[in-house]
Amino acid sequence: MPKKDNIKKVLVIGSGPIVIGQAAEFDYAGTQACLALKEDGVEVILVNNNPATIMTDENIADKVYLEPLTCDSITKIIDKERPDGILPTLGGQTGLNMAVLLDEAGVLEKYDVTLLGTPLETIQKGEDREIFKSMMKDIGEPTAESLSTSSVDEAVRFAGTVGYPMIVRPAYTLGGAGGGIANDEAELRNIVKNGLHFSPISQVLIEQSVKGWKEIEYEVMRDSNDTCIIVCNMENFDPVGVHTGDSIVVAPSQTLTDRQYQMLRTSSVRVIRELGVIGGCNIQFALNPDNDDYIIIEVNPRVSRSSALASKATGYPIAQIAAKVALGYQLDEVINPITGDTYASFEPAIDYIAAKIPRWPFDKFTQADRLLGTQMKATGEVMALARNFPMAINKAIRSLEIGLDSLYLPGVEKLSNQEIHTALDQATDERLFIVAESLRRGMTVEEIHDITAINKYFLYELEAMITKEKEIAAKEWQAIEAEDLRDAKSFGISDLTLAKLLNVDISTIQQKVKEEKLAPSYKMVDTCAAEFSAETPYFYSSWNEWDEVESLNGDKRMVVLGSGPIRIGQGVEFDYCSVHAAKSLQGQGIDAVVINNNPETVSTDFNTADHLYFEPLTVEDVLHVIEKENAQGVLVQFGGQTAINLADGLQKAGVKITGTALEAIESVEDRDLFYQLLQQLNIPHIPGDTVMAVEDAKAVAKQIGYPILMRPSYVIGGQGMVILHNENQLVEYLADLQATAHGNRIFPLLIDRYIAGYEVEIDAICDGSDVLIPGIFEHVEKAGVHSGDSVAIFPAPNLTKEHKQLIELYAQKISKQLNVKGIMNIQFVLSEDRKTIYVLEVNPRASRTVPIASKVTGIPMVDLATRVQMGESLSDQEWKLGLHKEVPYYAVKMPVFSTNKLPGVDPILGPEMKSTGEAIGLGSTVKHAMAKAFGWKENSLKALSEQDTIFLSLTKIDTKLSEQLKSVTASIEADPETATLLTEQGIQVRTTTNLQEAEQKCVDEKYTFIADTHRTGEKDQHVSLREAALRSDTLHFTANDTLSAYIEATTTNAESPVSIQHYRSNKPDLNKKERAMP
Amino acid sequence: MSETTGYLVLNTGDILEGKWLGTPKQEEGELVFNTAMTGYQEVMTDPSYAGQIVTMTYPLIGNYGWNEIDYESIKPSLKGFIVSTPSHNPEHYQSKNTLMEMLEEHHIPALSHIDTRALTRIIREHGEVYGKITQDPNESPVNTSVNTNIVSTVSVKEKKSYKIDNPTNHPTPHVVVMDFGYKHSIAQSLLELGCEVTVVPYNATFIEIQSLDPDGVLLSNGPGDPQALADLSENIKQISESFPTMGICLGHQLIALAHGATTQRLPYGHRGSNHPVKDLQTGKVMITSQNHGYVVDYDSVNMKNWYVSHVNVNDKSVEGLKHKTKPLMTVQFHPEAHPGPIDTHHLFVDFIQQFITKGEKQHA
């Protein structure tokens, strides 16, 4: 059956801000889907309030609504746009939940909107575990003994009959939030109670634990003709017990016989048929390693993180095909775009192994509980492709950017055998390295298997890697021959690791590699194991094999470095930039070669670049690609700090860094050089210095005066950055830092005076002589809160003309002095008296705010930046120079946090970034934009009434907040100190509650929101209260400015949804040059 | 390390260097690749690979070892085996041996650490490729064709009967399998459906088969060019017109030939577990297991008596034939799977259904 002809206009629901469990994979899926629909002549209306995405670009959908993902907001969009169909299965759990809400509210029926793809009934069947289980029972498919319940006591009774351990999974949550494994009644009570809080329908599933079984996943597609295919199956390195999002995963399965593979394949097909899925579906199995018993763990009747991984692992574009299938096409009618002449109804065969390793945020959240379980904690992931397991693992480790280049984790040799045993038993993010260390110590595969239940196949492979490392280390460098290097390379061992193992300088290795003309070959990803010819420009490295890259035809080739895994401080916004840089190059007639290793992203889609290399972003791996491609240069400004950090090594190896010179990059990244520069340009900077020792730090701190802002140099997202108020805190901080440094040097450290001013920032495109500034972002919270975590308004509403002129002037000075070619981000602090503007930092690269500024103003910032990097001048572009005129509407960027997934992390705002994503709100006034931003999801913004109670524990209160609190209708509760403070201001406090009581009330969900702004650095009652708010999903504020903005938003009536195209149609030529008449 | 170096020398002029997996032994054969990611044991014991050197496109082979249940024949018939990275520490509860142990036991020359993707591309680009596994890179393959008597080397020499203990069907249908190199899973599929199975040599005559009083006859898969068995056509025609008959793979090709169709060589064959096939009656698409180098010419099928029941979604080649009036059905793919999906297993049920219904009538 061909396409449904009655569907001419489709509403696609995006997944919103990035949170743990729902990351960039939905930008990839959504982008593919929108393009697939457009390709068929369907008008696409998109709603998604994540501004950092490619999918919200104006050329991806016909109309883009950067509007809240709430039932009310989407209903209004439907009312306005009258789509024929709605496609919710590509927007993650958020998209599905919205579809359910819209249906329940009768909206779909009222407006006669057809739900495309998988029927709603199926979605509910898959989500409601009770219904799902009984359906599986009907078709004879096994599931775990389980019970869905809303009662703690009932859960305990059931556990009594089935036996412990029991797994607890809350219904309708992301990444299994709030779940866990209970080994006894006390644990069960705790976890169930918590899980009920997390579940929007207050329901948890408790089930028999199959901990230790193999965890296997199948990605299945089905069309309306009932054709079912398996795109890919995957096997978790970590057996059941660790969330699959937190597991190391390989594709395809490695330890299943064909009989078992087909048994689970057949089961998958039966399940997807019974469910009636139209599109993609993910099915997770637990398989007993000792026989053929299996159970179905869960089914996701939509595209997912796993489907993004499966797409990148095989080349098969699941989301794109799912969109076609939703339109009514059959799989045997859709051409497989990879081969170009086979059909989407064939099952991919791959001839390499794909390994995924999650990227966890524990480098940022050192205080977080690192134990892995049923609650996903990773923010992102990397994938490596290779012709064998060791090479895949080594490449994946390098791709993680956690400072490791092999299976060796520094400091691990200091652990006692007992500690090693514990670390094997209780999985954390470091378990892979602990297994490696156990093997180094001579533990047998058998012994490790007994503790970890990790399949021996994987352990034998790791053992082979360790044996190889030992073999190399046992040799003298002089005895190393080319054959040894080739052998090491076939294990994926990097030059750096070889240098460490052989105790020589890395340059010695590099020289030998060069002399022997050793280089990787590159193999193609083609979905069919070379059975058919394919023209996909999608490659991965291999060693000692034949190369199959066909040279690009153009005269010019540039490499664009991607930004690696999504992590705190480096999110999907840099993928947006990398993709636009590649597209810009293509627009200039230059071939774009993209290198990245993040399987979730648009940049690693096979049709983004002319050539895509799925490789680690290290100097060695990147150099090999540059040499292979004979590229003329590399663009480092778009891949976040990842790419910038490679600039030095690449230039030293003779690669041309296009755009801003390396020296200029270094002069803004090195604090001393940077301050010299500012002094030279007569630009104020905050007093500060670099210190090299403890005593030095004390002296400098005393000299510039407390409070001080302290941080290690070269950091992303303010990692390790703190505000210290006195010398005691300084001493303590240094001691902590030293303790967690694994014996590495903690110096140099940077100390600045902490100025609690107003923060503003800009992104400027510069060509060395001119600058173009689309606008200024103003932060709501005062300096001291990381820019990534502050609410920001664009264009800045509270700056004077003089302030703006000064900002423009400073940008011009810096740009000219450094001969900046491309893009830079400058952060400023306006002193509290609003008299001085300090330059806080300059990032010689694209920043987090680039996609927002681009979308709001319509200035193609990355394209312009790429063009000037390639030598065009700004004055030749169609846009005006200097600071642009302000658009007649406002955007508010709202940080979104995942701290509720990370026990042990205090959600208080500070200089260290904690948010995982951001939402945008647009409006005709700041107030209205703010209301949209705070109201980014269901129930996140509600007018306060007499029924509401709020709890306040504040350190101070300003006039604005005081006035606001006087007029709120909600009952105010406060701790004694705050109560005094408030009463003094004439604010009525209903009840004075101590923190302990407040914590209990918070857990019992008595509060509409809490505000606690105390930051002592201790794990005190305030931290405890904030953590209680996280657990109970109670709205919480940790800065007065945010609280104030929120209260204002609660009194603002929502504006109707407006598409970004409509916003911009108002004055489209506002900042375009006037064309002289010929 | 040179003592372990082995070579695969191809008649295309390519020489691939690898390592011996087991004892070095020279051997020649036609090169074919299989894209299945699991099921190497089934592939290696499939008699259809007789005369061929098989390379697996999936690089990691041997991970789950070698077990006692996944034999498709009592011993491997292939001439040689080429892999990228073999596992020497297999891990599976059913595993009894390693891949290398079995290669040794059956004296199959094998090379590892070959760039199997490069080899696959060579086969794809050249179509028919012959090669020699050797210790001497200066040698080259002498044979450039597969022995035309290849079927006789893999077929049973005498008939053999199988039945299960407690059949659910009464009376038990009796199926005669003509063995051109049959996979055990074919007999197994029939047995599991309650049939009594007699396996007879590939050249059993109509009279011999008639004397067994079968309810149905199945012509099995097997190696080689179907045209090499042209002299059997008359016999096959008579059998297929006299009994409900099913043909699988080579059996399908032979029945087509016997009824006047022609066959040709595919450029480089279909071998793998992922081939989509469309049932033209129902419009349904199923994923099938395939292993064939020859195919029935679409245009040669006599459409007066036959219709094409299945086609390959990708290259539209003939995947199945059905006689318009007689109980005669043939498929190019492998409904018995092993390795591969069991999407088309129902074809055995359809086949048997014909004579179970007939049986009831006879006994009514």
From TrEMBL, chain A:
Co-factor binding details: Binds 4 Mg(2+) or Mn(2+) ions per subunit.
Binding positions (Mn(2+) 2): 298, 300
Family assignment from sequence similarity: Belongs to the CarB family.
Region (Allosteric domain): 939-1078
Chain's gene name: carB
Gene3D superfamilies per the UniProt record, alphabetical: 3.40.50.20, ATP-grasp fold, A domain (3.30.1490.20), ATP-grasp fold, B domain (3.30.470.20), Carbamoyl-phosphate synthetase, large subunit oligomerisation domain (1.10.1030.10)
Binding site for Mn(2+) 1: 284, 298
Binding annotation for Mn(2+) 4: 841, 843
SMART domains: CPSase_L_D3 (SM01096), GARS_A (SM01209)
Catalytic reactions of this protein: hydrogencarbonate + NH4(+) + 2 ATP = carbamoyl phosphate + 2 ADP + phosphate + 2 H(+); hydrogencarbonate + L-glutamine + 2 ATP + H2O = carbamoyl phosphate + L-glutamate + 2 ADP + phosphate + 2 H(+)
InterPro entries per record: ATP-grasp, ATP_grasp_subdomain_1, CarbamoylP_synth_lsu_oligo_sf, CPAse_ATP-bd, CPSase_dom, CPSase_lsu, CPSase_lsu_oligo, CPSase_preATP-grasp
The record's note on its domains: The large subunit is composed of 2 ATP-grasp domains that are involved in binding the 2 ATP molecules needed for carbamoyl phosphate synthesis. The N-terminal ATP-grasp domain (referred to as the carboxyphosphate synthetic component) catalyzes the ATP-dependent phosphorylation of hydrogencarbonate to carboxyphosphate and the subsequent nucleophilic attack by ammonia to form a carbamate intermediate.
Annotated binding of Mn(2+) 3, by residue: 827, 841
Protein name per Swiss-Prot or TrEMBL: Carbamoyl phosphate synthase large chain
From TrEMBL, chain B:
Catalytic activity, as annotated: L-glutamine + H2O = L-glutamate + NH4(+); hydrogencarbonate + L-glutamine + 2 ATP + H2O = carbamoyl phosphate + L-glutamate + 2 ADP + phosphate + 2 H(+)
Pathway(s) where this gene product acts: Amino-acid biosynthesis; L-arginine biosynthesis; carbamoyl phosphate from bicarbonate: step 1/1; Pyrimidine metabolism; UMP biosynthesis via de novo pathway; (S)-dihydroorotate from bicarbonate: step 1/3
Origin species: Gracilibacillus orientalis
SUPFAM superfamilies assigned to the protein according to its UniProt record, in alphabetical order: Carbamoyl phosphate synthetase, small subunit N-terminal domain, Class I glutamine amidotransferase-like
Name of the protein this chain belongs to: Carbamoyl phosphate synthase small chain
Organism classification: Bacteria, Bacillati, Bacillota, Bacilli, Bacillales
Subunit-level organization: Composed of two chains; the small (or glutamine) chain promotes the hydrolysis of glutamine to ammonia, which is used by the large (or ammonia) chain to synthesize carbamoyl phosphate. Tetramer of heterodimers (alpha,beta)4.
Signal sequence residues: none
First-tier enzyme category under EC: ligase
Role of this protein: Small subunit of the glutamine-dependent carbamoyl phosphate synthetase (CPSase). CPSase catalyzes the formation of carbamoyl phosphate from the ammonia moiety of glutamine, carbonate, and phosphate donated by ATP, constituting the first step of 2 biosynthetic pathways, one leading to arginine and/or urea and the other to pyrimidine nucleotides. The small subunit (glutamine amidotransferase) binds and cleaves glutamine to supply the large subunit with the substrate ammonia.
MF GO annotations: ATP binding; carbamoyl-phosphate synthase (glutamine-hydrolyzing) activity; glutaminase activity
CDD domains (UniProt xref): GATase1_CPSase (cd01744)
Enzyme Commission numbers on file: 6.3.5.5
